[in-house]
Amino acid sequence: MKNIAVVGTGYVGLVTGAGISDFGSKVCCLDIDIEKIKLLNNGKIPIYEPGLKDLVDRNIKSKRLTFSNDIEESIKYAEIIFIAVGTPENKSGEADISAVLQVAELIGKNLNNYKLICTKSTVPVGTGKQIINVINKHKQNNIQFDYCSNPEFLREGKAVSDFLRPDRVVLGVSSKKAYDYMKDIYRPLYINKTPLINTTIETAEMIKYAANAFLALKISYINEVANLCDEIGADINVVSEALGSDGRISPKFLHPGPGFGGSCFPKDTKALVKIAKKYELNMNTIDAAIKTNNYQRRRMFNKIENLLEGDLKNKKIAVLGLSFKQETDDVRESAAIEIILELINREVSINAYDPVANDSMKKLIPDIEYKLNWQSAVKGCDAVVIMTEWNEFRGLNLEELKELMFTPIILDTRNILNISELKRLEFKFDNVGRK
Predict the structure, then answer these.
(1) Model confidence, pTM
(2) What is the DSSP string of 275-337?
(3) What CA–CA distance (Å, rounded) separates 232 from 245?
(4) Is 264 a catalytic residue?
(5) Three-state SS for 261?
(6) What is the b/e burial string over 229-267, where b = at least 16 CB atoms within 10 angstroms of the residue's CB?
(7) Which terminal CB of the chain, N or C, has fewer other CB atoms within 10 Å?
(8) Chain-centroid distance, C-alpha 320
(9) What is the spatial distance between Cα 151 and Cα 131, in angstroms, rounded to a whole number?
């Protein structure tokens, strides 16, 4: 059983810490946010992620998982240190790794015996070398350490299952000793034949960006195909199903909608383009995916305008779904943000409702009406816009919806409603690629 410290208790850090403790190691999750650590020590989870509370509670009870603000002391005690702090997009579109390097400096100053330093944060290619240099600069003696790039591939809303049952584990290591340490941590997965990819640090860093950019490409591609389906009268759902049945393509991420969002795809695609420019290379396909995604947001607003025949001023519109996808309260880069802000600019009155993300959106856009259920959100509205594919919205009672609305107009940006029922009930409606 290894003693492990995980610095950062966001989506990645908390899931990583709880997951590794579930594999049998003793883990202390660390954060400078005192209130967040207090919440965790009181059995409360600061983020919405299905299955995470049960995972955390189980490992707290087994005494393998603890939480602390004492980062320096925990670094000294740990054998392996995971860096899982945020790397947000900076003004130039690059990943801001300042928090990662701050942790590296702390590790260097408190390096008291051999340790393996492992990065979970999404960082540009070459960051591993910077981390190693920072630790060497600040360490007080000749104590040795190793480094590993161990990128995460966690989907928000399914992060727990993704960690406990991954498709692969990527290990970019500086030595055989580092690989053996990591192999020991992930032993339950190794026994279950989960592929462990043993590679270089730079290759591991590249794998993370390449994977996210490719998935973003799939989303932008199917959105462009859906837009063409709109114009020619084809059904994108059938097109997507046929594409997905091809083993070379797979059905994942072939769901048209208002564009990709969240904490990863938008910033990682931009960061990859920036990395390439440093080497005087163009990432033309990634550039196109970014442009398509921006266009898709605008196209959704145009659909609202068309449904209301351009007359938006003083209308009341309900926005159902605020998170960037279902099963998360994360609204970062959510398509709903741009829609709401544009509606506000057009002097539209807005009712908003999300099963879990009301409070998250309220921090960004406080001056609209937030409702506690979809019925109160749509009551008396001139139109409804579905922005997130929550199951609650898939099962909307359309007869009740029509009775509650002032006029039966709806934009389904996720293609989750029954078109036959919408027609039967004489809704005026639009979707993405299903005219």
Answers:
(1) 0.92
(2) HHHHTT---HHHHHHHHHHHHHHHHHHHHHHHHTTT--TT-EEEEE--SSSTT----TT-HHH
(3) 23
(4) yes
(5) coil
(6) bbeeebebbebbeebbeeeeeeeebbbbbbbbbbbbbbb
(7) N
(8) 20
(9) 15
Tokens of 1: 């059983």
Burial class (CB in 10 A: 0-12, 13-18, 19+), 28: buried
Cα–Cα distances in Å, from 138 out to 108, 131, 320? Answer: 5, 11, 51
Cβ(198)–Cβ(171) under 8 Å? yes
State which residues of the chain have pLDDT below 70: none
Query: How far is the C-alpha of 388 from the C-alpha of 334, rounded, in Å?
Result: 9
CA distance 342 to 346: 6
Number of Cβ within a 10 Å radius of residue 411: 26
Contact indicator for 349, 370 with CB cutoff of 8 Å: no
DSSP-assigned letter for residue 78? -
Coil, strand or helix at 80: strand
What tokens were used for 249?
């393509």
Q: Tell me: the pLDDT tens digits for 117-153?
A: 999 999 999 999 999 999 999 998 899 999 999 999 9
Q: At what angle do helices 127-138 and 98-109 cross, to 10 degrees?
A: 30
Q: Which residues have a Cβ under 8 Å from the Cβ of 228 and sit 6 or more positions away? A: 234, 433
Contacts of 429 (CB under 8 A, 6+ apart): 307, 409, 410, 411, 412, 417, 419, 422
Q: Please pick, among 28, 118, 229, 264, the residue that the annotation labels catalytic.
A: 264
pLDDT at 9: 96
